[in-house]
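Lecture 7, part B: from sequences to assemblies.

Below are the input chains for today's worked example.
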Amino acid sequence: MKGKVAVIGVGMIKFGELFDKSLENMIQEAYLNCLKNVEKGIDPKEIKAAWFGQWSGGFIGQGAQGGQSLASMIGNLDISCSRIENACPTGGDTFRNACLGVASGVFDVVLALGAEKMRDKPSAESLGGAGGGGGAETGNHPSWMMGQGGPAIQAMHATRQMHELGYTMEDFARVAVKNHHNGSLCPYAHYQFEITVERVLNSPVICWPLHLFDCCPQTDGAAAAIVCRADLAKKYTDKPVYVWGSHLGLDHNQLWDRSSFVSQPSVVRAAKGAFEMAGIEPKDVDFAELHDCFTNTELMDIEDVGFARSGEAAKKLKDGEFDMHGKLPINPSGGLKAHGHPIAATGLGQIFEVVTQLREQADKRQVKLKNGIGLQQNVGGPAFGAAVVNILSRSR
Amino acid sequence: MKGKVAVIGVGMIKFGELFDKSLENMIQEAYLNCLKNVEKGIDPKEIKAAWFGQWSGGFIGQGAQGGQSLASMIGNLDISCSRIENACPTGGDTFRNACLGVASGVFDVVLALGAEKMRDKPSAESLGGAGGGGGAETGNHPSWMMGQGGPAIQAMHATRQMHELGYTMEDFARVAVKNHHNGSLCPYAHYQFEITVERVLNSPVICWPLHLFDCCPQTDGAAAAIVCRADLAKKYTDKPVYVWGSHLGLDHNQLWDRSSFVSQPSVVRAAKGAFEMAGIEPKDVDFAELHDCFTNTELMDIEDVGFARSGEAAKKLKDGEFDMHGKLPINPSGGLKAHGHPIAATGLGQIFEVVTQLREQADKRQVKLKNGIGLQQNVGGPAFGAAVVNILSRSR
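Predicted structure of the full complex, as structure tokens:
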């Protein structure tokens, strides 16, 4: 795929509790923002296919959202559009499938869009219920998590990180502090306020040792990217961003099959595949948007992607290496911690951030670029056994 | 894509009311049958990616089935696997995405697999409920069909076919008679018995003018195909089948936006795209597996794909043109009418049939080949606004 695929436009909406917007509204707004973002302009009819990331339609009863819904909502029935659902990595995987579609030579210009209404139902019936096996929609099949929702699984990881790696609740809280700071500078974030380690540790315990502020919020949102043949990209923009690596990594469906609780093999596999495709190493990356659904998860992600050895992420974080102006900024957007996690929109929101940073258009949250390479990562699904890593670069 | 992609193995299980098999059982059986079907053998580890078609997991509460479920169930965690959900064309679209994955140059050998448990819930809560807007899972979003289930929509089409084209209930019934005959010769069909026009017309009315035997049954099933780079195919089999055309066509989400009820624009678009890619015309096709969820739908499919002009399909059917040994056999497998419609498995079951016929391994139901070209088609989704057409050939 390297050298064949470029991003020519990205768009998202401000994530939040968007009770005043329908799914259609959010999709249309992200799509129009995306079209506007194509520097030299684009005729929507040039888009010949789309991949539509959508989770909530199936799982929490927000209506059936097949590929045709996207086509119908953006008023372009001449596209082919598949719906991708792949749990929490749905957004990153939607982008991956769009890239494969372009690399195939069948389509020159395609759209990847993810959108979710997460707040129209209470948490217990939304991500909490579906993810936790409490919901009627997902609880009755043994391949799902059987009562183990996101906080419960990550709390097991966190206790093991404390036991094996010596990590502390303060270490986890520092992830929240960093990401809330970054989010306070990002106009798209759900939460745009700073917090302190004390505030995290004094917030209610959701699932020990994770506090309220160790968890990302549940949020509505939509985000999109227009993906194009690399050799045509300059027609649309002087600042194309090229896709160097893209890989989906998987693992067992069940926690009892896991050999470690301080590492997520799905992430290790996704990163390995993406780096191999890109032909680079973690040290070549300037910054990354990682899947911090919980604070301890970001520390695992950092290690599993290869930015730190196991047990070293917390110290590097404390030393400021992952700060916005540190050696390797992690989640300059504020991450899921500040943006929330509208499943299919999350990964594409991260792609938005990586592209915006690589174009040096990130305003107050702009990181310093060296090699001009950024990385996006998601993880989730039953037992967190699905992960995706996309690596993007300013150079073809 | 033409010239780049081949099918080297197909596998399915006997469709039916499979209360004695779990989703895992069905997936594993179809997968193992598919591996065995690769003539010169294949090491499962050569499969590097998969696309998993799954509808019921999200929509009728059979558990969350992301891509990792397939990987975990077949015991190969080193694959990348996305879940595709695209309503009734999920199976054909899963195959399309697998083909794009190979055409991209990223993967040499991939798996497309679709499986559904449709019978563990009563019809009213299964396809009937979800499709009809009666189910809690899908009824509460206005982009879905708002009370219009499959039978109701197709009954509207059927009455319009009667009014505009002069079609009769006998014409519809003849589709059932033909397909039940074909199905009686196919060991994979759910229903393996003959019926008569009289039996169709004397069966209970489901939604006038459609009788019970105008409707396909609800059925459990699984089917799979292994897709490979065309230039590597002969390593695995002396009888590769090549993918010449593959296209997904869409239409509005709502019936009130439809301009005709004797044609489905999604099918017209899918066929146009697939024929353009293949560089052939409908007259070049030897036989086809079309989406006969209802008998009148097959007549529309025949016309929309381009095998007959509008209003001419019924006469050609009556004249025997679409019989197994007619000029253009339609649904030599028995179609959905005899196989049932386990959503994501349906399209891949049709691919199984097309490949088996093109290899001349279809035993009692073998059709005569001239050009060695077969076609597969699905249609469905809200207002039947999603369709897929795949065109396969013995020649590269």
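Note for the exam: Residues 173 and 198 of chain B are 8 Å apart (CA to CA). Keep this in mind when comparing with the next example.
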